[in-house]
Amino acid sequence: MKIEILDSVESTNRYCEALDLTQVEDFTCYWALEQTAGIGQRGNYWVSAPGENLTFSIVLYPTFLPADKQFHLTEALSLALVDFLKAFIPLPSIKWPNDIYVGNKKICGTLVSTRLTGNNIASAVCGIGLNINQTTFPNWVPNPTSLRLLTGKEYKLEPLLTQLLDCLEKRYTELRSGRNLEPEYLNHLMNLGVPIHYIYKGEEITATITGIDPYGHLLLTTDNGQKLCCAMKEITFLPD
Ligand code: BTN
Predict the structure, then answer these.
(1) Distance 239 CA to ligand 1 centre (A)
(2) How many angstroms separate the alpha carbon of residue 201 from the centre of ligand 1?
(3) N or C: which end of the chain has fewer CB within 10 A?
(4) Residue 220 burial (CB count, 10 A)
(5) What would the pLDDT profile of 84-102 be if each residue is shown by its tens digit?
(6) Predicted model pTM
């Protein structure tokens, strides 16, 4: 495992996507002290004060994974983040598909992009933004938190990154060895079995998460018994 430190880049994901991957070893981590245009899910920005948090991307070659099983990589990443956070705080949970929450506050987001060869994944850039020491956020960032806000302590970033990479490597090794991570992912899934409000196809509904399908779609049953299978763009969680 190698760590490359970048002083300032627009986005570590974009940086990695532009690399000549024939020159990049498996599991190389590109850690930016500052991102000037960090990218989040759904076309959002990822906001992170320079030098205060962990913002990095890892280049992987999960050629053993069929393209339609990319979600298994999401499961491995999410569980590694939960494993890491459990050493500091009780009860981190995964908000489907790959946000990490503590209570109703988001501490971490991940963004994965892949390249394919035939029906398999050739390479993956796995971007992780984990809030560590930041205590104030712009007011348009929904429900942010950080390790410092949760524990009252300030942290050195580099030892935490090393610890987190160990957790990621462990889960990635399990994935490569064919271990099914779905049961553990479901064990940590926020709102599993709990009826809550969503926007689905433009309408507000009440539904209960019952699981995920083999492709990572969210399975829900509505309060009038209808079964739904949703991709990320099809459903939005609503605050209670
Ligand atoms: C989300 O919206 O929850 C996903 C956030 C992902 C942010 C990380 S920070 C490191 C990497 N580089 C980026 O530009 N985005 C990801």
Answers:
(1) 22
(2) 26
(3) C
(4) 23
(5) 999 999 999 999 999 999 9
(6) 0.96
